[in-house]
Amino acid sequence: ISSNELLKSRNDALISDFNCIFASSKNQYKQIMRKLILLLVANMAISAGAKQIFIAPYGSDANNGTITSPLQTIGEAVKKISSGDTIYLRGGLYQCEKLVKIAINSGSELHRTLLSAYPGDKRPVLDFSATASLGKPGITFAADYWHVYGFDVTHAGHNGIRIVGGSHNIFEYLSTFDNGNAGFQLAKGAADNIIKNCDSYYN
After folding, report:
1. For 43-55, b where at least 16 C-beta lie within 10 A, e where not — what string?
2. CA dist., res. 116 & res. 155, Å (int)
3. Beta-carbon neighbour count of residue 150 at 10 Å?
4. N or C: which end of the chain has fewer CB within 10 A?
5. In the prediction, which pLDDT does 89 show?
6. 3, 103, 107, 133 from 83: Cα distances, Å
7. Is the whole-model pTM more than 0.90?
8. Closest by Cα among 24, 13, 22, 18 to 3
9. In b/e form, how buried is each residue of 164-190, taking b as 16+ CB within 10 angstroms?
10. What pLDDT shows up at residue 17?
11. Which residues have a Cβ under 8 Å from the Cβ of 102 and sit 6 or more positions away?
């Protein structure tokens, strides 16, 4: 599929004049579909007029969060967005020195707040080794109507991702591994969450 053609579609119009790619194996098919979903998610965010904030391993929380001046941490990015906005993680390894708690900026059923890998980049990996001695989850999630997509969480002292009361969220194409407790855990009334095509192992 031509990504240029996908990103031209800003409304509900049909996409035309696209190219086809034939997958030679099941793994290649999965890789193509994951990239396609990322592009479609990005296009929906653009169409909805959502604000976009970027973070990167080489970023700084003193930056303004644009694609050319990215932040470094999810926590700082969450402070800068509003309901229905988008946070993009550029590819690479994040050495997380702080735990992440997401409890604000809930989206809505029609306009979810998005936390996603950036389309076309190497897969982001959030490494919580520096916080492991605290014995706490790497990411604690307590907001509603978010769509969380496409990155890895590893070496947290407890759960990789703990969903505490957050509801109506979508967690998709995530991997949690080598954490101190279960990779994913839902607790304290978390309801109506979709955990889709995620991997959890060696926890």
Report:
1. bbbeeeebebbbb
2. 20
3. 23
4. N
5. 98
6. 27, 12, 5, 33
7. no
8. 18
9. bebbbbebbbbbbbbbbebbbbbeeeb
10. 44
11. 74, 78, 115, 139, 140, 141, 142, 143, 146, 166
Amino acid at site 84 = G
